[in-house]
Amino acid sequence: MSNHPEKHPEEQLSAYLDGELGEEDRMLVESHLEECPECRMLVDELLSNQRLLLSAFESMTPPEELEASVAAHISKEAHPLPVLKRTLSFALSAISFFAVIGLVLGALYIKMFAGAVKLMKPLLLLSTHLIADMPLLMGVVILFSVMAFALSAVSLLRLLRTTTS
Ligand SMILES: [Zn+2]
């Protein structure tokens, strides 16, 4: 008890335990600890405090709510693209569906128009200059039919592409 230095390096002990001391200071603290049971006790206390803190950290588990909210957040962040893709493909399918319906109705209308033209044929036959217009009218009807078929084919292809991808 009597041969240890009077000055206790108390303020250096935690730095010593954390390995933050330089070579010289570390040697001084170590030699002091060998001679001073008071400081050894202090070091033991500091060590047990550190262990207590560490075990407290280890035993600390995040609340389940936090875990759930984090999981929800992650799933929300991970899925915007598929949701957007699904919505987009649905919209495209709906647009294609209505386009096909519209084209079919348009084609039917054109057919009805053509039928009406056929019915009007006897009347048209009465006029030579209206007969001369017939090929042009039929050409327009055929052109519209081809366009309707082409557009519905494109729509169907788009529909197939959106449903398969
Ligand atoms: Zn001491």
Put the structure in a nutshell.
This protein has helices at 10-17, 23-35, 37-59, 64-78, 80-125, 128-164.
Structure notes:
With 165 residues, this protein is mainly alpha-helical. The protein is built from 6 helices and no strands. The model has no long low-confidence stretch (mean pLDDT 80). The protein has helices spanning 10-17, 23-35, 37-59, 64-78, 80-125, 128-164. The radius of gyration is 45 Å and the shape is rod-shaped. The protein is 86% helix and 0% strand. α1 (10-17) crosses α3, α2 (23-35) packs across α3 and α5 (80-125) packs antiparallel against α6 (128-164). The protein folds into 3 domains: 10-60, no CATH class; 81-133; 134-165. The structure holds zinc ion.
What's the arrangement of secondary structure elements?
Blueprint: H1 10-17, H2 23-35, H3 37-59, H4 64-78, H5 80-125, H6 128-164
Beta-strand residue fraction: under 5%
Number of domains: 3
Structural class: mainly alpha
| SSE series | HHHHHH
- State the shape: rod-shaped
Could you give a short account of the major beta sheet? Answer: none
What is the mean predicted local confidence, pLDDT?
A: 80
Count helical runs. Answer: 6
Radius of gyration over C-alpha positions, nearest whole angstrom? 45 Å
Distance between the termini: 84 Å
Number-wise, the strands total 0
Low-confidence stretches: none
- Say which molecules are bound, naming each kind only once: zinc ion
How much helical structure, as a percent, in the residues? over 70%
